[in-house]
Amino acid sequence: MNYSLNRLVVSLFFIVWFCASAAAQQEPAQKLSPEETAKAEAILNRAVEVLGGNAYLNITTVIGRGFFTSFSEGQSQIPARFVDYISYPDKERTEFISSGIRVIQTNSGDGGWLYDGATKSLADMKGKQIEDFKRSMRTSVENLLRGWWKKENATLSYVGRREAGVGRRNETVRLTYPNGFWIEYEFAAKEGLPAKVIYKATRKKQDTDEDEEVAEEDRLAKPITIGQITAPWAIDHFQNGVQTSRVVYESVEYNKPLAEALFAKPANIKSLK
Prior knowledge:
Elements: H1 34-51, H2 54-57, E1 61-72, E2 75-76, E3 80-87, E4 91-98, E5 101-108, E6 111-116, E7 121-124, H3 127-138, H4 141-146, E8 155-163, E9 169-176, E10 182-188, E11 194-204, E12 211-226, E13 229-239, E14 242-254
Antiparallel strand pairs: 1-2, 1-3, 1-14, 3-4, 4-5, 5-6, 6-7, 8-9, 9-10, 10-11, 11-12, 12-13, 13-14
């Protein structure tokens, strides 16, 4: 299951995850000891097992349904119903219905398209939007646990334990890419389940052209098991410690056949399904 739902958007006005341009978080290179690397790998191996082992690793498609809610100045806005189709490793189509308006956002490899029901427009994704999708895949728990990061020569390291509430601790690992961009993942020390995803991004300040660095964080909660597979059914996203969105699932289906046409851009609005 894609824990961050690849930065859900309700409409072009609800972009809370997709339009972040992650900064290369440069830090001095550190030489890792074999013990540190082995400990980080052990945390990942345990997480895979508690999520379902081979059943989790053998997921090829996910269909998730539920509600997406954006937050403004700490206040929740009107929830939008969504259905999300994922075909690993790099295809996703998310459909939203809010106030009777349908919005579709689709990514497939190096391309993508958008349909905005409010303006009745169908358009290709721009370069930055595609890069944002790729970045969201980079920061996903799936990328970490399935080992896709190894193709990009990222390195895995153990960070240590962190407080996670009264009597609770999280084990933390860090994934660092050659350009310095890093993501930290926290796993519940007791249960082994993914708990948080943390990284930094640069965003444009509102009403200005200036950039600012923003701390991004996904908090994963409400784990539910279907068959052999466990996944969080509630995902809260924070920027600089302030909540900006929430995803709550109603249902999740695994390994259902998904036609390639689902991700292909339609010839025109009339042929949109």
